Amino acid sequence: MCLITFAYNSHPEYSLILLANRDEFFLRPSQAVHHWPDTPQILAGRDLEQGGTWLGLNQSGRFATVTNHRNGRDKRDGLRSRGDLTRHFLGGSQPARDYLHTLESEQQAYGAFNLLLGDASGLHYLSNRQNNPATRISAGVYGLSNALLDTPWPKVRKVRDGLRQLLQEREPNRDALLALMQDRERAPDEHLPDTGISLEWERMLSSCFIQSESYGTRAITLLMQKPDGSTYLREQTFDVEGNTEVQEFDLQLPAIGAAGREGD
Fold first, then answer.
1. Cβ atoms within 10 A of the Cβ of 36, count?
2. Which domains does the chain have, with CATH numbers?
3. What strand order describes the sheet that includes 230-238?
4. Alpha carbon distance 56, 228 (integer Å)
5. Strand residues in the chain grouped as ranges (E)
6. What are the φ/ψ torsions at residue 174 (nearest 5 degrees)?
7. In 3D, which of 21, 12, 2 has the Cα closest to residue 179?
8. CB 177 within 8 A of CB 188
9. For every one of its 264 residues, what pLDDT tens digit does the chain have, with 9 covering 90 and above?
10. What is the pTM assigned to this prediction?
11. How many C-beta atoms lie closer than 10 Å to residue 159's C-beta?
12. CA distances from residue 13 to 75, 156, 167, 176, 217 in whole angstroms, order as listed
């Protein structure tokens, strides 16, 4: 994933509302969200080049998504795929906190990442581009792109502020939520980050929805979950021509953060 905004325990009806854009080269083969034949408990899209996923759930109520941390000046080779981080968590049974604690000792073996995991204990965040250990996410509205959590890039602020506005509705409009992630306006040059890539690429990547001949937003995901575990998942995929397909799922899962809400 390359742009994520989410509201955790910040709405009267939904304990989690998450929106995410996956940006990738169009030539990289992948599958839309589905139940994996080799690991049926996983519901996720799949990168057919490395075998991992950018975002997914499993039937035990586990959630995982990952973004890269962009640094064009760091060109190390031989690093493990970020998609393995999510795939291994979704395919396993280790609690999120234990999984992240185990990962901390080997996190530098992976490409630069921001990892967001959820299970009954709550949401947890880890990046291998900061010295801090894994953190448990508290209630709030957040944004994440290709820098650390809540780094105020223009598109991060835009989708986070837009989500805050839509949270004022008791039943947030799904089309309006998805529209936040389809904004194609680019940021002014003076507001662009310097991540070690060309100015042309910084400009192209500054919009929420990215579109070019070779690279762009290939999927938008909407995840909405209530405290009782009622879960709605929608993925809209795009190809280089702009054609789109939609997958929708209504699920009943153990809720993310349910353990922390016991006795409320």
1. 20
2. 3-261 (3.60.60.10)
3. 140-144, 3-8, 16-25, 215-225, 230-238, 244-252
4. 19
5. 3-8, 16-25, 30-35, 42-47, 55-58, 63-68, 113-119, 122-127, 135-136, 140-144, 215-225, 230-238, 244-252
6. -65, -40
7. 21
8. no
9. 799 999 999 999 999 999 999 999 999 999 999 999 999 999 999 999 999 999 999 999 999 999 999 998 887 777 899 999 999 999 999 999 999 999 988 999 999 999 999 999 999 999 999 988 899 999 999 999 999 999 999 999 999 999 999 999 999 999 999 999 999 999 999 999 999 999 999 999 999 999 999 999 999 999 999 999 999 999 999 999 888 999 999 999 999 999 877 644
10. 0.96
11. 25
12. 44, 24, 10, 17, 29
Q: At what angle do helices 83-91 and 96-104 cross, to 10 degrees?
A: 140
